[in-house]
Write a structure and sequence with these properties.
The chain is of the alpha/beta class and 142 residues long. Helices cover 41% and strands 20% of the residues. The protein is built from 6 helices and 5 strands. The chain has a 5-stranded parallel β-sheet with strand order 3-2-1-4-5, sandwiched between helices. Strand 1 (8-13), helix 1 (20-30) and strand 2 form a beta-alpha-beta unit. The radius of gyration is 16 Å and the shape is globular. It starts with 7 loop residues before the first strand and ends with a helix. The relative contact order is 0.19. The mean pLDDT is 87.
Length: 142
C-alpha cells in the first residue's frame, strides 16, 4: 500500500489587527493541506514595507499560533516566500488574489512551478481589511 504524502502549505502576512478575513484565509488554506505553516512578518520588515504594526510581533505570532487551523507559526524576516517554502518542505503557497496576474507574480509562478510548489490564490473577504479597521479607529479616536 502506498503511503500518502503529507501536504505542507505555507502562507505569510502581518496579521495586525487580526480579523475575520485573516481567519477565512487560514481556514481555507488548512482545508487544502495537511499541515499549515504560517509566516508572521517581524516588526522590522513591516517598517521596511513603509508601514507600522499596531500590535507587536510577539503578540501577533502568539495570536496566529493559537488559531486551530494553524499547525505552526514562524517569523517572516524577508519577502522570499520561495526560499521559505523550500526550507519548510511546503508544496503549496497560499496568497491573496490581489497579487494574481501581476507581472511580479507571473515571474514568481514560473520559479515556484520549477520548484514543484503550487500557488493557490484566495479572494479577500469583502469589506474587511486591517487598513480599513485602522482608519475607522483613528476616526473614532479624534
Amino acid at each position: 500500500m502506498e503511503e500518502k504524502k503529507t501536504i505542507v502549505g505555507y502562507t505569510a502576512g502581518v496579521y495586525d489587527l487580526f480579523h475575520v478575513g485573516h481567519l477565512n484565509l487560514l481556514k481555507n488554506a488548512k482545508g487544502l493541506c495537511d499541515k499549515l505553516i504560517v509566516g508572521v512578518t517581524v516588526d522590522e520588515l513591516v517598517l521596511y514595507k513603509g508601514k507600522r504594526a499596531m500590535i507587536p510581533f510577539s503578540d501577533r505570532i502568539e495570536i496566529v499560533r493559537s488559531i486551530k487551523f494553524v499547525d505552526a507559526a514562524v517569523p517572516q524576516y524577508d519577502m522570499d516566500k520561495l526560499t521559505m517554502c523550500k526550507k519548510l518542505g511546503a508544496t503549496v503557497l497560499f496568497v491573496g488574489d490581489d497579487w494574481y496576474g501581476t507581472e511580479k507574480w507571473q515571474e514568481y509562478e514560473k520559479a515556484f512551478h520549477e520548484a514543484g510548489i503550487r500557488i493557490v490564490y484566495f479572494p479577500y473577504t469583502k469589506g474587511v481589511s486591517s487598513t480599513k479597521i485602522t482608519e475607522a479607529l483613528n476616526a473614532v479616536r479624534k
